[in-house]
Structure formats: structure tokens, C-alpha cells
Amino acid sequence: MTLKRPTEKGTNLNETLKKLKQIVNWFEENEDLDVEKGLEYVKEGAILIKASKERLSEIENEFKEIKKEIQK
After folding, report:
1. Rounded to whole angstroms, how far apart are CA atoms 72 and 70?
2. Neighbour count for residue 55 (Cβ, 10 Å)
């Protein structure tokens, strides 16, 4: 499984969540964990979680703006 860091702007939330799921699946499927590889995935997961939170915040703000426009 090869993972790339999400881009700063315009992170695709669906793709980020798919990558997080791949990481979770890797941990669930491997009884004899490679600690070094596991550490890489934990670091990547942290980056993906941060990117997801930021994107969710952006999406929330967009919905708020749409709501304001509708209420005018």
C-alpha cells in the first residue's frame, strides 16, 4: 500500500477517508506487525486525520455560507 500526503488545498475528503481505511485494514489484517512499517502508517494516519479535519471545517463553512445566502 503506497500512501501520499494530501495536498494542502482542496483535499478530497473521500480519498483521505479511503486511505485511512486502508491503514486500519492493514493493522487489522497483519497479526505479525512490522513495527517500522506500522510507525509509518501511524504517522501517515495522523497527517490524514489532520487533513480530514481541516477539510470538514472548510465544508462546514461552505454550508454556512449557503445557508446565509438562502436566508437573505
Report:
1. 6
2. 19
